[in-house]
């Protein structure tokens, strides 16, 4: 994330394009929103996977995952892919 946020103004400056502070702020806010949205999706997915493994363990087999794979996915923090 830091590379994305830090590199955009420098790349524009190298190309000779002026970057307005307000434009940078909008880009950073958009990037931050997309990151937070991805985190929310991962958290929700892992919660649903955990519920499925508890309530309907036979469905885990149907989607082609092992119990160990499900446990590893559930154990990941939301910021990890």
Short characterization:
The protein has 4 helices and no strands.
Q: How would you describe what is shown here?
A:
This protein is mostly helical. It has a domain at 43-81. It contains 4 helices and no strands. The longest helix has 35 residues, at 21-55. The mean pLDDT is 85. Residues 1-24 are annotated as: Disordered. This is DUF1127 domain-containing protein.
Query: What percent of residues adopt helix (DSSP H or I)?
Result: over 70%
**Helices and strands, in N-to-C order?**
HHHH
Strand-residue proportion: under 5%
Q: How would you classify the helix and strand content by structural class?
A: mainly alpha
Largest sheet: none
Q: Calculate the mean pLDDT score and round it.
A: 85
SS field, number of helical segments? 4
Rg is: 19 Å
The count of strands amounts to 0
Give start-end ranges of low-pLDDT stretches: none
Query: What form results from the Cα inertia axes?
Result: rod-shaped
Write the layout of secondary structure elements.
Elements: H1 2-14, H2 21-55, H3 57-62, H4 67-75
Helix pairs in contact: 2-4
Protein name: DUF1127 domain-containing protein
Region (Disordered): 1-24
Organism: Mesorhizobium temperatum
Give keywords.
81 residues; mainly alpha; 4 helices; DUF1127 domain-containing protein
């Amino acid at each position: 994330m830091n590379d994305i946020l830090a590199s955009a103004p420098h790349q524009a400056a190298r190309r000779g394009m002026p970057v307005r502070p307000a434009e940078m702020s909008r880009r950073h806010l958009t990037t931050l929103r997309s990151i937070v949205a991805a985190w929310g999706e991962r958290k929700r997915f892992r919660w649903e996977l955990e519920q499925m493994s508890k309530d309907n363990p036979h469905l885990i087999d149907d989607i082609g995952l092992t119990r160990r794979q499900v446990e590893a996915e559930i154990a990941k923090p939301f910021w990890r892919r």
